[in-house]
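Methods: example folding runs. The two proteins below were folded one after another, and each record is reproduced exactly as written to the output file, sequence line first and structure-token line second.
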Amino acid sequence: MCRPVAIDSTTKKELLALFDVSFSTSGQAREALVEAIKPYVEETDEFVLKLIPFAKRAPSEPVAIDGLSSLARLSELSKKLENSADSGGTDIGKAIQTVSSMGSYGGVLLLSDGHETLGNSRDAAVMAKRLGLKVFPVVPDESNFRELRLSVTSLHAASVANVGEQIPVQTSIRNELDKISEAYLEIWLDQQKLFSETVTIPPKQERLFTVTTPEIKGGLQRIRVELKETKNYGKGSSLLDEKHRWLSAKEKAQVLLISGADTDARILKPLLKQNGYSLHSVIADRDKDIPISFEKYSTVILNNVAKRQLPESFLGNLKNAVEQGTGLVLVGGERSFGLGGYIDTPLERISPLKFAPPRTTKRRLNSAVILVIDKSRSMIEEDKIVAAKRAALVAIDALKDDDLVGVIGFDSTPFVIIRLDAVPEVRQIASRRLQNLTAAGRTNLLPALAFAKSSLAKAEASRKHVIILSDGKVENADSSYFDEISSLRKVGVTVSTIALGLEADVPFLKGLSSQGKGAFYHTLDPNQLPQIFLHDIKVSTGEKTMRENAQFPVIVGSAQAFSSDVSDFPPVLGFVETLPKKGSELELITQKDETNFPIMASWNYGDGKVIAYTSDANGRWSNPWIEWPSFNKFWIEIFEASKSKSNENRKDVDFDLRHYVDRGDLVLDLAIFDTALKTKSSAPISAKILDPNGEVNVREFEAIAKGRFKTNIEKARPGDYKIDIKYGKIDLPTAAVTITGDVFGERKGLGIDVKKLSEIAFLSGGSLNPAPADLLRKVRTIKEERPLHTPLIIAAFVLILMEALARELMGVSENYRCPTRP
């Protein structure tokens, strides 16, 4: 059945051009080739430029570009089409053969520098003539093909960086001319411009430019340097030269730092941040949300934090996490190890050190303790005053019978709740008398301190101690308080302070405890007060587990494997007594009275590594270390060493990937920086490699040295290679390398081989630089059929309507005809 159609025809002129995109054609050379084709291009709707980009290869189908946008798109596409043609070589003969096989084209324009590294253009030209194809080479201004006037000679930047780091980028620009030259230099990190400026280079000299990136974000990123002509910059100025490299950004594994107080975190927290760690820092007591699961952490650091400050399930979960590969670092202080209440807990089981219980001297000296408790109006909130009473009872019960104890409440004035007396006497009345501790009034501590001093001055006791509890701002907190603390010290009284809640005057109370040679505590939870009072009572009344107030020399112990490369250490001013366990590595020790005491020990527990350091890192005992030039290096090496040696559990393996071309093969040279490789063989390493053709290759790396591995890709070609490396079960961040044509023998700046181009033209029957009218074009008629169903149907419908209307009118006419006269 025939269907009615209408046929429309349009005529298109076509120009077929071979465009050299090999590495030897620089940016400025390609711009010259684009200029050279302009006389042959008609920027109209009736014109089509058919482009075949070629280098080592040539596509079988040309890229069609409409005339209206041909020149602009050609300039843009010449670089983008480079990969499809394999810029690592130039085969003009193959390009001519490609056009010859298409048939029906009488001529082709050749845009090339004429330097052929592969193939046989002579034979291809002869064959083209036999098939009726003429080749017309175009020879532009040769100066654009000579040695680059200005060139990017180098681009240096890290190939792998941590997320959040800022890295330097360095590039060198050289001027080969005998006169001063300028160009516009741009440096990019992906789509972010880092530098853009007109640069001036003296004749025959090279200048170095350095910029620093902003904080690196995750993922694979390209660093690109572009050198452009200053003429018409921003309006299509010529690209003189460019270089680029890849940056692989990786997340450093997250570290969990839990500190007992702000003072404990003041050194380690900034140290970890400054060294690129992804840090989660928590202050116990102040921060309620202490993590109890550890899957996302490579290392947990317990920094002078007591057991009472941690959630109930914390230690059991931590033990399981260490068994599965999480690293653990224990840092000492007055709230750590045995002093922190960890004896017979999961923490002691996974520690390389046995915790010594707090112990007193054989001949115990008696103590006199006065509890000075804030009873101002704010203490009624959250049952703070109730918790304070309970804490006072716990402290009284913890004292020995030959000790003395008293309780003073204070608001605007001091109020003696329990006068200083023997503990057995006080126990009988403590519960009843503490009922008088009611919250009211303002906060004035100074008269209470004076009252405590007068009471203790008369007491017959070897140790005298004051514990101050306050939840708010102290009135008139000036130097008179510190004078009063100094007078207490003169009569042998030590002073500890406890800050309760967010409104407590933390700096002031901390200063008082420092002046009074006691301890400072800060808690948001009133229910923690009994444990704090109990802890301070034990320490202040003669416990010997904590050794301080002396210089203890630190030397290397008997460990076979040491966590740090540092070998010379300053003394510590204090440490917590512990005992090494069988199988642990005793890394640092101090000697006292012919006895070795651990300062640092380590071992592997399951798949995790545990390092215990019995001094502190907050300056109380470690002030000589903080001023030590190797302090940062020591602690970073400790944190790195604590990471699991099990490859299956490492989350942030450091690596470096380099490459080179050897006899046509791409060789990937991989370095893995993993301490486990010092003692263990490597886990299998493989890579999925996306090549410039879009094909995926899987390769296995082979070991060539400790921590060094390589693999190769046969018959490599220029372009981008995206590489996903798997190290055991760990997926390293995606990396990439780019190969340029110069490694395959292609060279820029050799000028134009006019002899070669002339030979091609002569053998094929063409000519150099033909006149536009001489260049054969194929005139193509495009026929387009339009179905006529719809217009015919509409026409028929209109005719039917018109006929119906006519019939109706005729009927009306018959009915109203005039009557005939007789």
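Second run, written to the same file directly after the first:
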Amino acid sequence: MSSSTLDAPPADPILPTSNDESGNPSTAGPGEPASPPKVRDGFLDTVRAIALIRVIFWHTLAWAAISWAVAAMPAMFFVAGSLLERSMNSRPWPQLLFSRLRRLLLPFWTLGAVVLSVLVIVNHLHPGSDTALSPASLLGWIFPIVDPRGTVWEAGWATTPLWYIRCYLWLLLLSPLMRRAHKRWGLKFLIVPVIAVFACDYLIRHPESAPAVFTNVKYYIGDLATFSFFWMLGFSHNDGAIAGLDRRARLEWAAIGGGAAVLWVKFMAPPTLVVNDSYPLLIFVGIAWLGLFLSVEKWLGQGLTNRWTGPTVRWLGRRSISVYLWHPVAIVGAYWLLSELAPSAPQIAVLPGVFALTVVLAVIFGRVEDYAAGRKAQWWPGRDDPKLIRDVGDRLGRFLPRRLSPIRAVVIGAVVGVLVVNVLVPSPEGLPEASAAAAGTADADTGGLALPPAPSAKPDQANFGAAATATSAAASGTAATAAATAAASGAPVSGAAADPAAIKDKLQAAVDSWRTTKKVDGVQLGVMLADGTDITLTSGKKSDGSALDVAASYPITSVTKSMTAAITLELVKQGKIGLDDPLPAITKVPDLPYVGKVTIRQLLNHTAGVKPYDTTAGYQAVKSGPLTPETALKLVVSEPLEWTPGSQVGYSNSGYLTLGLLDEQLSGKSYADLVQSQIFGPAGMTNSTLDDTPTAGWAGFSAGGVVSTLTDQLAWGDALYRKGKILDKDSLAQMLNIDNQFNTGLGAFPTCPCSLDNGVKVFSSIGHNGGQTTVQYAPKQDVVIAANLTESMWTDDLSQADVAELLTSVEQVVSPS
């Protein structure tokens, strides 16, 4: 969880250690009185080491199954809470707070100096909206009570994992209050964060019920509620409340948590199976793993002294902050190296490089962690260091100051940042594109190995904030402006001569890499370049193992809605109805409860509040039989509107079935005739039809009934968005106008990366997705993109954010020089 949704995988916090947790003889910082040596807790050290290693695996590979293997975030906050409670029992709070802030902020400021130096120099070499750094974003780098922010260019790899510092800082500042409540009510007080977790989750899933301010703070609240639960559970561990539970009770605890997680997935159907994407799921899985850890507490406690595990556990204990802060940089570097040396290697082959580079970075910057903790600085901490390493480290240490002030930390970080930029970014031409890092796509020029999504990135959504977390270079201007200009002139707005064969080779490499990373069986892809050249290709095979054919027909499902929207807008232009007119009675379904209560515009942009027919109470009884538009809408007759029309947005097939019947009624033609005469004919779509055969549980019709081909879908996108063959300039501008609080057009949705450029919303492409299909127009590149996948982007295995990554990789390949 972080400030960017529940989306994409959150980072797991590796919390700062205190001197009394490090194994050093003294717990005192500079100028503080010495305190007696503390006995290390091998159980807590080992749990922290396990969680940290799991963090690196998760962020490197981003496989959903890894998020279930050790709940690292709950484990780390549990460890931190237990250790903090121990320190609070022996030290005055002001002294302890100052010590903890010093140990946290000095390493953090060093990272910030490196990151900000790189971002400033990159912007100087390659100025633009994607490299611009907002001055307001610096607040989080000074005192991270809000999330630190970077630029579009760094794509979240330098900043999104830093949410944990913000969450840790909030918990640290609130600890005296939480401790007082815990002392008074004990484990009973844990019900407070649990209630807050479920309330937050409900409001995230039902934004219509949430106050407006909740949108901006929902992840701050969710993180604080979730991890305060484990923080205070750590309090209970230190004060002995858990010690009374025998092994059987602890295993029962694990079973209850695991069972609750399974039931939550089964009945609540979270959008993804990534544990980190659901606060309640984090609670359940965290309880399960802590129960398992505690059931073998004595055995795990030997991890610190074990001959084989002890050195690793001790080293990670002394370098936990450095490892956490710098491992994302190691991941990016390892992927780049492997893509250069062995681009066809499997993704898992990157792990050795990630761990090796993480160790190197932890060695380089680990001394800052020692300085911050007020202990002897070492290049390689641990009593079992080989003599050669100790000797070399001691000699190098003579050239560094004994204490590292905040100013020196910033200066050293800035120098390192300058060196990094001079090596990696010698010129604007050598600047790495953000989309490769942001979207998990192969490098367009090399066909290299694909990065996973940035750590802690939220699910893809139209978020036009000052800085996006996962984006490529944003399009200049809006799609409405670019497309409308092209439609008026009859000519493409951009584009230069290019070699289609070379572009196809690069597209093939990018799509192959994306498909392999996302574990998709097959992809059919079509791209129409700015000069009108079509490029089509396939990657992989069908799910049954048979070959894919670029000429084959396939259901475009909800992409049909863009056609329905175009037909409706043409009727508006003809004066048959107004966009803001109330919905008139529908002859074929006379009892619709929302007639006269919603407008045509609200049906087109999904803000009407019409309940989807497949979520109604009566759907289960009829879903096994064929549905027509009329029978599907009759399921909605007894359902009230889900919200006041125009106040919320929510995708509804029922709304577009209503529009299809309205179009028939206003025009006097069947929807099949309308789509043939107004869509297929003008666009030259000779291989497209409307399949209006009633299907079990599905009423396609005007919400998703068209069957088409790749080349016809490219022709559709070209005719609609570029050539003005379907709508005139004004009608197209209305369709693509997203200047509203919901960021939705009339049958069109922007695809992020998104950002604001002088107050203007810009995005990578705009169009419509279906279950397994998409048709998009990318204004910056002036290309139309169509894709058909073997997996649905609405399932647990693939998301619309994943498809956005595919689109970004395609856009990078065809981007004009």
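Comment on the second run: The longest helix spans residues 93-125.
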